[in-house]
């Protein structure tokens, strides 16, 4: 049964009472970035809420109340999973029709007036200060599809692929909030045998899921696989924009660099790990025997998030991808255990991305590289447009949502970016 | 002619009056990290110096004087090259025997007593908060030597190598200050056909030069090649510790990851770009025609730093590498222009490393991978030890110094790390 709120929450909202995602906002009345939660079509400003005794009935948070006036969620995240859980539970109660504490907000119209804002009127900002950003490659179907394209079916997957979560360090400074325009990059590409300098002609998106780290391990000390989930604050949608022509020329032998570092977009609202817990399922099967440091006690370790990608061109909007985040070979705890097995120090605010999530059928693939077969076949779009790769002005919108009860969805909202023409050089 | 100081500076000191490198220190009397310069066998505590009117004769710095009480040099770096220059010039004058301002420090024994500490008594800390760390691969001889080893002489260099500064994003959180112990990492390696989980058996060092960024470009706007030098605050020595067996198994197709993220050591004192200016020379010749965005107006764009690596084992200390940082195909301005050509936002505090610097002769190579031919030939060391790769307890010391006048050296001091045994798992 869906929880019932005194606040009107539209059916189908990503931000039901079952969710309570955290973000950073500014408003017309205050340009200071500060924490908030999204609920229905509203946001609750946690800086205003906390400084007006909103947390008076949750004494355990009082020593840490300053986390709600910080410009990022790092300090809140660093308090750890049990604290996130108690704050989320408390805020759920505050918005319940049968709340134990009606005086705090339900019957406190003065506080409602200063602490609740329409979602459409707030500006969202990067929710965390990101120390390091790592992009994995755990989407088996994507890795396979791309491998077939470049090496044939027999050698599609590299020998290491089933043994370890392949990943690479990304560019943290290039991570931007949903809505930020993405400029088409310049770069070197092969045309066809000699390198030329040009605007990228194969600009692509990648549909990914991201996780923020909320605890640090000591340098030199790996995070054990069965403790790794407690290091995960929450999740966002990720669009790992990719320049395929730049990537093809640059990536041997040290991996993608310029093809990825011009921008990576994340959705604004961090869905807490606890909110996703009910949606755990089995990821893709791995028949390979894996090393003990990667073996999780539990069987269901990957989230079942319904993912969609819309491509908007001048001619209209087409949903070009529908898939599930179950299409991962490795879980986030496995990624974290592998990342730190060397003793690599993970820090509060680090972002891990899953790698491109694709299904196996047409219309389930999380990149244009796969959908257009590297530019061989054009996608037919609403209104008559066709696309092999992204053109200037195109907008990519990723959505993700868990659940079937329209009154109890746990969703991410949208992760949006529009392509701007290259800068004149 | 060497500049003469009223402070006794030993002949052969890396920290002559011609240098004035900046770092972050704590002392027994104060555990607050704060800026300092190294001079001879002493350091000048800039927090104490500035709060006792040490900068009274440099009015232009007064609006920014708080940068000298910060726990990192980021705020000072962000003031820009002209300010670094004026502060360095001023501090040089303060220590000159014929200083224009003797009352500030030369004849102010009270301030000398509270602001000067013996170098051996201070603890150094990471000088910058590092946002992103990028490791390039600009050491042509290293790339060639390694390529010959794995692919033969005909295919030693990848097709892109002479066309662009190959690089990859590294792990910023793993960068540590000289002296920090480095734990031998665990990881997956091929043995010989199936992956096993083990302590790395091929632990190596990499001799590199690093640069810190002091200005930010706007996202989407490349840094023009001939402005790039003004984005470089200064330089440090870098040891990019590498696990060769982990690297060999993991690195296809997305590049090195766990093989590098367990630790990267930098030297403590940042030698300002201005201090290195007199030591510019020609790097390695590139006969390939390069794209205009990489073409520098000047011909001499690489520093001539004499580099040495000592390997200390139980049996003694052996200098195993002697080379020059002229052994680079690409300059740091070229790396920065390439890094940002996509619009990648560079930020104050970013660290760029050169890639391994090797000469062409035996005894000039900047890694054990090259010196032992990937473990085929053991190096003979002082006192009878032999090494193919690093063993537990081994210590690697990198030194770098410019110039021949023993009274006017511009040096980096040392970049040191000792290998600790793997953690028990
Ligand atoms: Ca990706
Ligand atoms: Ca390196
Ligand atoms: Mg990206
Ligand atoms: Mg390293
Ligand atoms: Ni002289």
UniProtKB/TrEMBL annotation, chains A, B:
Pfam family, one: FAA_hydrolase_N
GO molecular function: fumarylacetoacetase activity; metal ion binding
Residues that hold Ca(2+) according to the record: 135, 206, 208, 240
Top-level EC class: hydrolase
InterPro entries given in the database record: Fumarylacetoacetase, Fumarylacetoacetase-like_C, Fumarylacetoacetase_C_sf, Fumarylacetoacetase_N, Fumarylacetoacetase_N_sf
Keyword check for Amino-acid biosynthesis: no
Domain Fumarylacetoacetase-like C-terminal span(s) in chain numbering: 138-415
Name of the protein this chain belongs to: Fumarylacetoacetase
Taxonomic source organism: Trichoglossum hirsutum
Lineage of origin: Eukaryota, Fungi, Dikarya, Ascomycota, Pezizomycotina
């Amino acid at each position: 049964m869906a929880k019932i709120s005194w606040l009107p929450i539209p059916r189908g909202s990503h931000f039901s009472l079952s969710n309570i995602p955290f973000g950073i906002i500014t408003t017309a009345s205050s340009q200071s970035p500060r924490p908030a939660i999204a609920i229905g079509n509203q946001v609750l400003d946690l800086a205003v809420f906390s400084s007006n005794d909103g947390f008076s009935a949750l004494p355990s948070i009082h020593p840490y109340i300053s986390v709600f006036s910080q410009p990022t969620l790092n300090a809140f995240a660093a308090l750890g999973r049990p604290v996130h859980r108690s704050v989320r539970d408390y805020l759920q109660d505050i918005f319940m029709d049968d709340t134990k504490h009606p005086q705090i907000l339900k019957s406190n119209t003065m506080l409602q007036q200063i602490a609740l804002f329409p979602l459409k009127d707030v500006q969202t900002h990067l929710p965390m200060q990101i120390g390091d950003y790592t992009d994995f490659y755990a989407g088996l179907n994507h890795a396979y599809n791309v491998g077939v394209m470049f090496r044939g079916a027999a050698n599609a997957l590299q020998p290491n692929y089933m043994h370890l979560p392949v990943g690479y360090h990304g560019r943290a400074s290039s991570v931007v909030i949903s809505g930020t325009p993405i400029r088409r990059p310049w770069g070197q590409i092969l045309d066809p045998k000699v390198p030329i300098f040009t605007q990228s002609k194969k600009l692509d998106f990648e549909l990914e899921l991201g996780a923020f780290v909320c605890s640090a391990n000591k340098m030199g000390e790996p995070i054990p696989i069965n403790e790794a989930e407690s290091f995960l604050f929450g999740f966002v949608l990720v669009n790992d924009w990719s320049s395929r022509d730049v990537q093809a020329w640059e990536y041997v032998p040290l991996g993608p660099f310029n093809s990825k570092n011009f921008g990576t977009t994340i959705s604004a609202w961090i869905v807490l790990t606890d909110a996703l817990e009910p949606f755990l399922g089995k990821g893709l099967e791995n028949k390979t025997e894996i090393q003990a440091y990667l073996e999780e006690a539990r069987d269901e370790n990957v989230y079942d998030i319904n993912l969609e990608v819309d491509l908007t061109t001048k001619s209209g909007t087409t949903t070009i991808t529908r898939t599930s985040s179950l299409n991962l070979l490795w879980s986030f705890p496995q990624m974290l255990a592998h990342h730190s097995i060397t003793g690599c120090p993970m820090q509060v605010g680090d972002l891990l991305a899953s790698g491109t999530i694709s299904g196996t059928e047409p219309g389930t693939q999380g990149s244009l590289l796969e959908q257009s077969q590297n530019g061989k076949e054009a996608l037919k779009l609403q209104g008559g447009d066709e696309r092999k790769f992204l053109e200037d002005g195109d907008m990519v919108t990723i959505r993700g949502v868990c659940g079937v009860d329209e009154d109890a969805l746990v969703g991410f909202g949208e992760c949006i970016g529009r392509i701007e023409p290259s800068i004149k050089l």
